[in-house]
Write a structure and sequence with these properties.
Layout lengths: L4 H13 L4 E6 L2 E6 L2 E5 L26 E4 L4 E4 L15 E2 L4 E7 L2 E6 L4 E6 L6 E2 L4 E5 L1
Antiparallel strand pairs: 1-2, 2-3, 4-11, 5-7, 5-10, 6-9, 7-8, 9-11
């Protein structure tokens, strides 16, 4: 397979021109995906599932609290605070929860995965925004 550098350069220029973070071009069995700081070329049939990296929002999640139980995301996906838009949130800061209570939903590949609490406690901090992309092992809630 010959790599079309001109096409990749053109797609890269479109990222800046149209203020995009990612652009994809597919033709027959060739798929070229260009994203800021990440270029990938896949020549597999498009019917196969391919690994992708979900860009994470730039929020202040680097601060660590000295005490508390951290509950982490069991999978990569998009975190939701409620079962559907406009519905009551699963947890709020100050709410007492028990081990096994659903604290959030993480959507991955169109599947809604309920994330249970791994401990009893009071919600000290919700570390992710509603609709934010999360990584495996990322702290999503801190309990007292």
């Amino acid at each position: 397979m010959k790599i079309d550098k001109k096409l990749i350069k053109e797609l890269s220029e479109y990222l800046d021109e149209f203020k995009l973070t990612e652009i994809e071009f597919t033709e027959k069995d060739t798929k070229i995906k260009v994203s800021k700081n990440n270029v990938s070329i896949n020549s597999q049939p498009t019917s196969l599932v391919q690994n992708t990296t979900i860009p994470q929002k730039n929020t202040d999640q680097t601060k660590k609290l000295s005490s508390g139980v951290e509950i982490t995301s069991p999978i990569i996906g998009t975190a939701y605070h409620a079962p559907e838009p406009g519905a009551k949130k699963f947890v709020e800061v100050g709410k007492k929860i028990k081990k096994g209570d659903t604290i959030m939903i993480v959507e991955a590949m169109k599947t809604m995965n309920h994330v249970p609490s791994t401990a009893d406690g009071v919600v000290k901090e919700i570390c992710v925004d509603d609709g934010q992309a999360v990584e495996f092992g990322q702290t999503i809630i801190i309990l007292e």
